[in-house]
Amino acid sequence: MTALTREQVRASRRISMVLRHRPESAGLRLDANGWVPVADLLRALGLTRAELDVIVENNDKSRFAIDRRADDADWIRASQGHSSRVAVDLGLPPADPPAVLFHGTPVSNVGSIRREGLRSRSRHHVHLSKDVPTALVVGRRRSAEVAVFEVAAAAMAESGHVFHRSDNGVWLTSEVPAGYLSLKPTNP
Ligand code: HQG
Fold first, then answer.
1. Closest residue CA from atom 25 of ligand 1
2. Ligand 1 lining (C-beta closer than 6 Å)
3. Taking the chain (188 residues) in consecutive chunks of 10 residues, what is each chunk's mean pLDDT?
4. Which residue is closest in CA terms to ligand 1's atom 22?
5. What is the CATH number of the domain that holds 21?
6. Ligand 1 pocket: which of 61, 80, 116, 127 to mutate (most atoms <8 Å of CB)?
7. 37 exposed, middle or buried (CB, 10 Å; 0-12, 13-18, 19+)?
8. Which residues, in sequence order, are CB contacts of 177 under 8 Å at separation 6+?
9. Residue 61: its pLDDT value, please?
10. Are residues 107 and 178 in the same domain?
């Protein structure tokens, strides 16, 4: 994997925006499972197939999946992260989570999360990371001062909470009640 150029990162963000949040802004409609024909996306965003392939293959979080269908038409979707206003069902099967998962968030959210637990807010799911370094990266998107919560994921699953694992390794669940959360001490 090679790092994307600034321009490729910009294109990747636009693809995320279209495939997760506002397909209609590019004149596209996702199918029930979140897919659009690659040809339609290229036309809508003014990209070549070669440009798209570089972005998909070198994406730091493997955000997009390409489905090469029998009839030779390729389809693309975002592997996770959709807004709740976009009605897609990724069709991910329930998965057994590891004993613990992690969630990185700005320190300013800590009080509210301790009271209310983790909510999915504008997305379909709460997103959880498999390790602390990944959770720190997620939190740093929003703030330099990041707190990491440990989530008692196996205990949640035992009480009936359903988990899914996206194609790019993000753990998803509807909500995390406060009782399953503990704040992890992190090094400054
Ligand atoms: C916070 C990225 C106060 C939550 C990442 C987060 C991820 C609360 C924010 C994916 C709260 C929502 C998702 C509560 C939740 N009180 N704050 N009760 N419950 N929050 O972006 O997890 O780069 O929807 O902590 O890698 O940050 O886009 O979720 O700070 O996988 O591919 O509310 O986005 O992927 O923010 O990130 P988000 P997230 P991409």
1. 105
2. 61, 63, 81, 105, 109, 112-113, 116, 118-119, 121, 123, 127, 138, 142, 170
3. 89 96 96 96 96 93 90 90 93 96 97 97 94 96 96 98 94 97 81
4. 127
5. 1.10.10.970
6. 127
7. middle
8. 117, 156
9. 85
10. yes
